[in-house]
Design goal:
Elements lengths: L9 H7 L7 H14 L15 E5 L12 E9 L2 E5 L10 E7 L5 E4 L2 E4 L2 E6 L5 E9 L7 E9 L15 E4 L2 E5 L5 E2 L3 E10 L2 E2 L14 E6 L5 E4 L2 E3 L2 E7 L4 E11 L2 E12 L17
Parallel strand pairs: 12-20
Antiparallel strand pairs: 1-2, 2-3, 2-7, 4-5, 4-8, 6-7, 8-9, 10-11, 11-13, 13-14, 13-18, 15-16, 15-19, 17-18, 19-20
Helix pairs in contact: 1-2
Length: 294
Amino acid sequence: MTNTKIFLLVSTLFFGSCSEGTSHSDLVNHNQKEQKMASTKSDKSDNNSTSLYKMQFNNDLSRIKAGEDFTLSFSPKYKYDDSKIVELETIHEQKAHLIIVSEDLEYFNHIHPTRVNNGEYSLQTNLPYGGRYKLFIEYKPKDSQKITDGFDLEAEGIEKPKMVFGNEKLSFNHKDISVSLQGASEIYSGSELQLPIHITKNGKKISSGNLDNYLGEKAHAVMIGFSDMELIHIHPMVINDMLHLHSNFDNSGIYRLWIQFKIDGVLHTADFVLNVKPSHHSEKKTTINQHNNH
């Protein structure tokens, strides 16, 4: 996974400014704008240096203001030919999945764009408060592997105090919905994880058969670790009519987990904090078992 900078209309603006008669202050201003716009860059992703694809943003994301709607427009492109359209396959009922989290991993949003032009996808959204965010875009070019690209976003506006997640949070309660993770207090890096997910509504157990399908699955789960800010998107399996979270963790540390599911047409997002302990053996890179085909 590589760090790839994405410039949004910057090259044209900057090199156009270097014509005869350009003042030093003009160059400084353009340099400052270039640095700010380049902050919308690809972070760690599944799209490595050998990938044929890149993500190109079609609008200026350097002027996002907290609490105000903005358009997020992007096009997957071939690295070797920007003029060719990259066709995307449908993955879990959508052409692309966008996940936005705040830098402190308190805020979470899972949204989907619509195709508006040849190879262009767009949606409107907003960021609730000032500060830094991480945007992940999951997509699958036709006849290729699924790609997850990560980008930095920043919103102007009043920032809230950073949330610090230091303690485990293994249960979720909101109105009539309760969700708990069984056995989540003993998780070790590098070990296979199977966690039963216990869901109740008004105190009554909700079996997997009582869950609506959501994006082609009974549930979706997203995990992000503070140590690397990498996204893990998995789909809980159904075992004995109960959801089970099944994955591996590369590293120890604090992880945020969000589980999304639908009951009676209403989407619920339950959030948790996991404390993954160091394994008894030295930590080494392991393959994340994402179970994307469940």
